[in-house]
Amino acid sequence: MKKLHFGKILLAGAFALSSMFAFSTAAQAEMSYNVGIHSKYLLRGIFEENSGAAIQGGADYSHDSGFYAGWWFSSLGYSYEKNGTDGSGSTNTDQDGKTNTSGFENDFYAGWSHEFKNGLGLSVGGIQYVYVNVDESDLLEAVATVSYADFYVGFQRLLTDGWWGNSGDTYWKAGYSFALPQDIGLALDYGYYTYEKSDNAQLGGKTASNQVTTSSSGFRHFNVTASKPLGKSGAEVYIQYTFAGEDRTKTDYNDSMVAGITYGF
Fold this sequence. Notes:
With 265 residues, the protein is mainly beta. It has one helix spanning 2-21, and strands at residues 29-38, 41-43, 47-50, 54-63, 67-75, 81-82, 89-90, 104-115, 120-132, 140-148, 151-158, 170-180, 184-194, 217-229, 235-244, 256-264. It has one domain (2-24, 31-264): Beta Barrel (Porin), CATH 2.40.160.40.
């Protein structure tokens, strides 16, 4: 309960501060928007949230003080309905018995970021996940990132329990990006997980006789992403190759490739 209480305070406080600054002059704050279509939605290197084309986008607010807030969304290729007390569930169906796979993800986030005079950057905040047609998945996550020049390291730590994670699960990440000739950008991103092994009752796959988590930590993914802007249109194309790792059950996943186009305005 203490973790949940702290997480709600963290996120609510960040949103409140950002909202206050939203009433400042236009010179002190700005809004930006983005939308894109992707060949699939690959979550943190291994889970295909949508194995077909996914529509994603969002809106971002930033203030000169460093406070930020935003919303990100994605279509999903599945839905989930809890139908038992042991954490098991099933794919949703409509009244005609046809499978409904139109889940939807919303990520609401807020926090504070700052770049110091020595080039060191710091960002802290929280993310509240809100799903449509996916039960027991509206979890809260604390995030922090330190950057220097083109390098970054950070983590995302779950503060609540649910279908896709235990409170205490932590996603560690690091990356480096640089420019290549012909206006091509290359980004290298590494992901690693540490797991809370005491599974919550809602965790996907858990039953009265089955403990899902069998690993305390593991390599999650290594992404290599090449991108290129399409002139001055605001659009950018990218292709990403993922060297996939394992999940909390030590199950290995196949490498994968994703391509897409995004537009920012």
